[in-house]
Amino acid sequence: MAVRTPGGSMPRSLHGAADRAADSNALEKLARVGFAASGVLHLLVAYIIAKLAFVGGGAGGGGNADQSGALATVAGQTGGAVMLWVIAAGLVALGLWYVAEAVLGSKPKERSNEDKPAWKRVKPLGLAIVNFALAFSAARYAMGSGQSNAQQNAGWSAQLMQSTGGKALLIAIGIGVAAVGAYHIYKGASEKFLDELRGSYGKSVTVIGVTGYAAKGLVLAGAGLLVILATVQADPTKATGLDAAVKTLGQAPFGKFLLIAAAVGIAAFGLYSFVRSRYGRM
Question: Where do the coiled-coil regions begin and end (predicted)?
């Protein structure tokens, strides 16, 4: 029978591993690199969106307006493979840091004896999965075998749409993504993201955070709604994630201006990621 911590929520061996991870200064520094890597990718996504606004999706303006497009952009640069491995390492470290947070029930560097309920551990665990998945994609691009998220999502969605259960799962995913987007908007509007920071920083950080979270939330909410719409219409080409949401935005009235606004907002989120790399509570 597993020995449990006094709070009764986790096996002692797992809790001990999380404690050791939290005490590792090297892992903390590399996790901060993970935030910076996320910032780089968001800035590149913003650049791709801006190109779509000014050049369009044809020659010279192509590219997936999501993380896979950003990774492909890095891969195409001199020394891109090395940069991708650094990004992957940082994201893995950040993922491990979130795992430690989920196990400990609090920020690893701010440990307390309070035993938090399981549902409060779900968020860091979800963030860990996202970072691990993105790190895996970065590693694949570094090895020359990367694939766009849009292609993968469309193929996966097409398979799920062939059954009632698969359609139900897609709709649930769409609702979940839209809910995450709504939470981002709330987090930005309420300035709740400031709870993630420590130390002294200027008012500009608040402006960047509000803009970034609101913009990313709107794009995520749009992506989730498109997945639901695509499932109802049995059209997997609309269920390709952020890329589909951004390009649908571009097709709307005043689409060019909406894309520019989205690019500015996603760039702001990228800048906030750099702020978090420096001032984030760990």
Answer: none
